[in-house]
Amino acid sequence: MLLGFFDDSGKESDLSNKIVCAAGYIAASTNIWSGFHELWSNYLLTYGLDELHMKEMMCSESRMKPFCDWDWQKKKAVLEDFSAAIKISRIVGFGVAVDAEAWRELPKELTKVEGTAQEFCFMRLIKMILDRIRKSAPNEKLSIMFDCDEGFTPARFKRYLAIRKRRQDDAKYLISFGVGEPQAYFPLQAADFLAWESRTQLLRQIKGLDSRPEFQHMMMVLPGFFPDYTGEFWDREQIEKVIMPMTDSLAV
């Protein structure tokens, strides 16, 4: 069974937010996740953490211990260590991001069908993963988990059921949907890490800035290690080219 763990970064409802992202990791073997769990647990213990939570860690005004006492060099070292745990484990990453400003401008007849930016990211994420499974592991089944988010979970589960109902071929792969507590499920912390870094990377690209060293470290090719990450970014041009033309057909 393939086990996948995912998280979001950025809210469409926040009008100041420019990017919505959903990302996470899957692996085909419980041994792989066991190895990841051991590494991640060791770094949590090393740094005195019960959870790696990027929003709290990276916020300059965070009051959460021990993040509020760390300078940037300490945070950088921590991120590189947790990034190394992901690399060594060889878990496979997926991510989808959407231009939130362009999505908020879509006509209501479209968003009624496609949903919020978060829902669209979820649907594209599942499609991307299923396409990969059909090519690489056609006999595997997929169990997915997100964190416990009261705002997003009901809509996600409704979309999950719709995918299973709409296509029998998809339903045979999608065998379970769940939510979990990141402090108990360490892969959800890795998903939070990836979603945060992916969204930050895109925001920097929009501003014409270079990638953060931490993102470069996460994606760096090393001897014997090749990052396995598949992603999509639905920018304004892509949304106007692919999504907007659906308006006329929906109006008929």
Task: Draw up the topology in text.
Layout: E1 2-9, E2 19-27, H1 30-46, H2 54-58, H3 72-89, E3 92-99, H4 100-104, H5 108-114, H6 117-136, E4 142-147, H7 153-166, H8 168-171, E5 174-180, H9 186-206, H10 213-219, E6 229-234, H11 236-243, H12 246-251
Parallel strand pairs: 1-4, 3-6, 4-5
Antiparallel strand pairs: 1-2, 2-3
Strands of the widest sheet, in order across it, are 5-4-1-2-3-6
CATH fold title: Nucleotidyltransferase, domain 5
Beta-strand share of residues: 15-25%
**Low-confidence blocks of residues:** none
Order of helices and strands: EEHHHEHHHEHHEHHEHH
SS content category: alpha/beta
Instruction: State the share of residues found in helices, binned by percent.
Output: 40-55%
Structure description:
The protein is an alpha/beta fold and 252 residues long. The chain contains twelve helices and six strands. It has a single domain (2-29, 92-251), classed as Nucleotidyltransferase, domain 5. The chain is 52% helix and 17% strand. The chain has a six-stranded mixed beta sheet with strand order 5-4-1-2-3-6, with helices on both faces. The longest helix has 21 residues, at 186-206. The relative contact order is 0.20.
